[in-house]
Specification:
binds pyridoxal-5'-phosphate, 360 residues, 7-stranded mixed sheet, 11 helices, 3-stranded antiparallel sheet
Length: 360
C-alpha cells in the first residue's frame, strides 16, 4: 500500500527493519545512547548548536508536542497571539483555552494567506503580547505560511514565536538563524519518515521558563533536564526511537532536508501536472503550497468515498478534506518512502478511474 496521506507514512525497508532491533530497557545505557543520538541528529538537520538549542523528546503524536510547546514555553504571565488559517492553528487556540492561557487570535479563512499587516497591527495594538504561535505548513489546505515574514514581525517587536512545524520539519526550510523562533514542534512520522509514537520540540534553551509547570506529562523543562542527564522521565516508545534513529540516518544519507525538499517537489510537480491534464484543479494557486502536500478539487463525477475506495483497491490511500472541505477536496502528500514510479502508477490508476466513471 502506498500512503498518500500526511502521516503515518509508507516506510522504507531499513526503517521497518529497525523496529525489530533487540529488546531494550529504557534505564540501560544503550537507551541513553540511542536517545542522545536521536536528539543530536534532530538538531543537525537544521545545523543547530546544542549549546543554544535542545531537542526534547515526548512520547505521543504531533499534537502532544504542540501542546507541550505551548504550555511549557509560555511563561505563567505570558500573553499569546495565535495566528490561525486552518485546523491546526485553531487547535493551538483550543489548547490555550483548555489551559486558561491568556490569548488573542488573528483568524483567517482556511484558504487565506496570513495577513502580515494585520499581524503587525495586532502586535502593535497589544504591546503586552509576549508570544505568538503559528503553523508553518497548514496541512488543512497545503499552504506553506510565510514564516520568514512572521518571524520578522515578531522579532522586531521582541515577541517569541512558537511554531507548529509538524508537517514541514525535515522537508521545508526553517530559518532558525534569522531569530524570533523560540520553539518548534514536530513528529517522527511525517517528513522524517519514522513511525508514530515519538514527537519532539526543538526549543531554545534560554526560552525554557523556570516557573511553575502547567502539567506533568507534557512539562518540557522536566523532560529536557532528565534527557540531558541521559534518562527519560517515563517509559518511552523504545522501538519508535530505534526507527527514528534509522530514519534520521537515512535522511542524512540522502542529503538532508534540502534533498528531501527537491524529491518532494519533483513528486508533487508530477501529480499537479498529471491531475491538471485530467481536469482536476489544485485548491491553491501555484507557489502557495508546500512540497509536502497539496489539495485538489474533487472531480464532479465522483464522491470522495467512491474515489478513495477505488484508489485503495489499487493500492493507494488518499486523504479527505477536513471540516468545510470534507466534500470538496482531496489531499495528496509526498511524505514517506515514495518514488516517481509510484506516482506514475497513481496517475494511471486515477486516469482509469475517471474514464470508467459516468458523468453525473
Ligand atoms: C499532523 C499534524 C499535527 C499533529 O497531528 P497528530 O495526529 O497529533 O500527529 C499537528 N499539526 C500539523 C500542521 C499537522 O500536519
Amino acid at each position: 500500500m502506498i500512503l498518500l496521506n500526511p502521516g503515518p507514512v509508507t516506510l522504507s525497508e531499513r526503517v521497518r527493519k529497525a523496529l525489530l532491533s533487540s529488546d531494550l530497557c529504557h534505564r540501560e545505557e544503550e537507551f541513553s545512547k540511542l536517545q542522545h543520538t536521536v536528539r543530536e541528529e534532530l538538531l543537525k538537520i537544521y545545523d543547530l548548536d546544542p549549546e543554544q538549542w535542545a531537542a526534547i523528546l515526548i512520547t505521543g503524536s504531533g499534537t502532544a508536542a504542540v501542546e507541550a510547546m505551548v504550555t511549557s514555553l509560555l511563561p505563567q504571565k505570558g500573553r499569546l497571539l495565535i495566528i490561525e488559517n486552518g485546523v491546526y492553528g485553531e487547535r493551538i487556540s483550543k489548547i490555550a483555552s483548555i489551559y486558561g492561557i491568556d490569548h488573542l487570535k488573528l483568524s483567517h479563512g482556511w484558504v487565506e494567506e496570513i495577513d502580515i499587516y494585520a499581524l503587525e497591527h495586532r502586535l502593535d495594538e497589544n504591546a503586552d503580547i509576549t508570544h505568538a504561535a503559528v503553523v508553518h505548513h497548514e496541512t488543512t489546505s497545503g499552504r506553506l505560511n510565510n514564516l520568514g515574514r512572521i518571524q520578522d514581525a515578531c522579532r522586531t517587536r521582541d515577541v517569541s514565536l512558537l511554531v507548529d512545524t509538524v508537517s514541514s520539519f525535515g522537508a521545508e526550510d526553517i530559518l532558525f538563524k534569522d531569530g524570533g523562533i523560540s520553539g518548534c514542534a514536530a513528529t517522527a512520522n511525517k517528513c522524517l519518515h519514522g513511525v508514530p509514537g515519538v514527537s519532539f520540540v526543538i526549543a531554545r534553551r534560554d526560552a525554557l521558563p523556570r516557573g511553575r509547570a502547567r502539567n506533568l506529562y507534557l512539562d518540557l523543562n522536566m523532560y529536557c533536564q532528565q534527557q540531558d542527564l541521559g534518562s527519560p522521565p517515563f517509559t518511552p516508545a523504545v522501538q519508535t526511537c530505534y526507527a527514528l534513529a534509522e530514519a534520521l540516518k537515512e535522511l542524512s544519507d540522502e542529503g538532508g532536508w534540502q534533498k528531501r525538499q527537491q524529491h518532494y517537489a519533483a513528486l508533487i510537480g508530477m501529480i499537479r501536472d498529471g491531475l491538471r491534464g485530467m481536469g482536476i484543479k489544485p485548491l491553491l494557486a501555484e507557489g502557495e503550497s508546500s512540497v509536502v502536500l497539496q489539495s485538489f478539487c474533487l472531480p464532479r463525477k465522483l464522491s470522495y468515498h467512491e474515489f478513495h475506495d477505488r484508489l485503495k483497491r489499487n493500492g493507494f490511500v488518499i486523504y479527505a478534506g477536513q471540516g468545510v472541505f470534507a466534500r470538496s477536496i482531496f489531499r495528496i502528500s509526498t511524505m514517506g518512502a515514495i518514488q516517481r514510479d509510484d506516482m506514475q502508477r497513481f496517475l494511471s490508476v486515477t486516469r482509469e478511474i475517471l474514464a470508467m466513471s459516468p458523468q453525473r
